[in-house]
Amino acid sequence: MNQDCKVETALEILVGKWKPVILFQLFSNGTMRFSELQKALPDITKKMLTSQLRELEYHDIVHRKIYQQIPPKVEYSITEYGIGMTPVLQAMNDWGMSHVRHLNELYGEDRTVEALEVKDELILP
């Protein structure tokens, strides 16, 4: 690939089943505790959620704030730098909505591939 093309760099942050969904939750809901993210994503394991959040934190997309209390409290939010991803995520969301409509037109709403409920807009914290 051309060394000026950084699509792979962007995909490194977004690739996988969970990162885009985690980001969507944080963009839509603002700051969230670990347990809130778990409830919002019931099919993700604790280990996978921790791993994905750490990767997003490494890339400075997600900020982790630890409160020194008992029991420990940890909150996650989108960083100022991460907010720059809004147009990319919004474009992906818009295209996903359009694609679901397209598939419904092609195959009808009773097709075997289930469409996920998609929100019209990301809401920044």
Protein architecture, described:
By secondary structure, the protein is mostly helical. It has a domain at 7-82: Orthogonal Bundle (Arc Repressor Mutant, subunit A), CATH 1.10.10. 49% of the residues lie in helices and 11% in strands. The protein has helices at residues 7-14, 19-29, 34-40, 46-58, 86-107; strands at residues 32-33, 62-67, 73-78. Strands 1-3-2 form a three-stranded antiparallel sheet. Residues 115-119 have low confidence and may be disordered.
Number of helices: 5
Largest sheet properties: 3 strands, antiparallel
Q: Radius of gyration over alpha carbons?
A: 16 Å
* SSE string, helices as H and strands as E: HHEHHEEH
How are the elements arranged and paired?
Blueprint: H1 7-14, H2 19-29, E1 32-33, H3 34-40, H4 46-58, E2 62-67, E3 73-78, H5 86-107
Antiparallel strand pairs: 1-3, 2-3
What's the short story on this structure?
The chain is mostly helical and 125 residues long. 49% of the residues lie in helices and 11% in strands.
List keywords for this structure.
125 residues; mainly alpha; Arc Repressor Mutant, subunit A; 3-stranded antiparallel beta sheet; 5 helices; 3 strands; globular
